[in-house]
């Protein structure tokens, strides 16, 4: 197992902290799993009209993002336990989607809430501050920590990132409209206040924002882990064994 772990680290020398491992990496992933589990428990313990509607809470981008984040951390923790390169690869692949998506969700939710929270939270739903943070802040924070300190650098470029973001935006829009046909209401009040053209603009802007977050996260990874130094031909100070 030790040799397998060393092999993984040899492949990804830019990580700040050894991962997968039973140390800090496993601790971060289990904290995420506990937090995400408590958020799911909240949906059951404090039901709303959404619980009985078509599509359940899957109508919310927040819950879709939480689910992908959950899967990312489950595979990350399993990789920590087994030191499996395959599970580690799955975790990193999921992170390409979950991390920019959760950053997008945090930006949209807190940005719109600063203007008018009733645009993103129906009046029938009353959420405490801890639950609010658990749904709309903790996932993005933990995923960014996982990316910056426990993951190899992303190789995705802006154009493929735009394709992924656009596919997610179109798929979610189609899903929301499908649920609307059954329920007669949108999960986010803001959607009901916009016409079709305005909603298309909103989803386009969301896709662009998610793409921008992917590019920003790649840039931030380079700053934190010294990739710019490598590109200039100098040795990074954080390579293991130096």
What does this structure look like?
The chain is mainly alpha-helical and 242 residues long. It has one domain. Helices cover 71% and strands 0% of the residues. Helix 4 packs across helix 9 and helix 6 runs parallel beside helix 9. The longest helix has 32 residues. The relative contact order is 0.14. It is a multi-pass membrane protein. It comes from Amylocarpus encephaloides. This is FAR-17a/AIG1-like protein. It is found in: Endomembrane system.
Structural class: mainly alpha
How many helix segments? 10
Unreliable stretches: 5-11, 231-242
Main sheet, how many strands, which sense, barrel? none
Order of SSEs:
HHHHHHHHHH
Count of domains: 1
Which band does the percent of strand residues land in? under 5%
Output mean pLDDT.
88
Distance between the termini: 23 Å
What is the compact description of this entry?
By secondary structure, this protein is mainly α.
Features of the shown structure:
242 residues, mainly alpha, 71% helix, 0% strand, disordered C terminus
List the helices and strands and how they pair.
Blueprint: H1 2-11, H2 24-45, H3 61-82, H4 85-116, H5 129-136, H6 138-150, H7 158-183, H8 189-192, H9 196-225, H10 227-231
Helix pairs in contact: 2-3, 2-6, 3-4, 4-6, 4-9, 6-9, 7-9
